[in-house]
Amino acid sequence: MNTPVQRPLLLVVSAPSGAGKTTLGARLLEAFPDMIRSISCTTRAPRPGEANGRDYFFIDMAEFKRRIAAGSFLEYAQVHGAWYGTPREPVEQALRAGRDVLLIIDVQGAERIRQLMAPPAAAADLQRAFVDVFIVPPDMATLRQRLTGRGQDDAATIERRLQNAGDEMAGASRFQYRIVNDCLEDAAARLQAIVREEHGRVVKD
Description:
This protein is of the alpha/beta class and about 200 residues long. It has helices at about 20-30, 60-70, 90-95, 105-115, 125-130, 140-150, 155-170, 185-200; strands at about 5, 10-15, 35, 40, 55-60, 75-80, 80-85, 100-105, 130-135, 175-180, 205.
């Protein structure tokens, strides 16, 4: 007799820069302490307060190319002039152990993950685990205010991020879920509800 079991989730949370995906991801990890956050590799320099191995793995371009050639990334993409990639082995290892994995990644990376999850490219267990969520800013004026207020980018970079955001939001319909981050508490509660809802979707062992 087949026994229904809760599947682990490969949860991809994506958004335009400044829409709040990192903050919402942190809230989600607090609510689900057994969930593992995948730490991406990047070729960009650390921002103030960021730590290697906690926020990102900061590597140079030569090492990034070496890992591409070795097939070490589940996905990788160039975003805002820097390269980002999701290490494959920690994700697959966590899922094999039955742990939920959270990927907080850019929209290009989310699209590559979605393509990888399409049959027959991915193994059935990865396809069953995959859930993606798009975080939407309430409007472009609010997004501009948030990007400016965090004080991490110069004016030219902010304008580039805003221009990219328009293109990124045009693809929001491809995600399984969309959350408007107008009120942080409400958005965090909705994201947590999505995880509980997906945990309720059982698969046959």
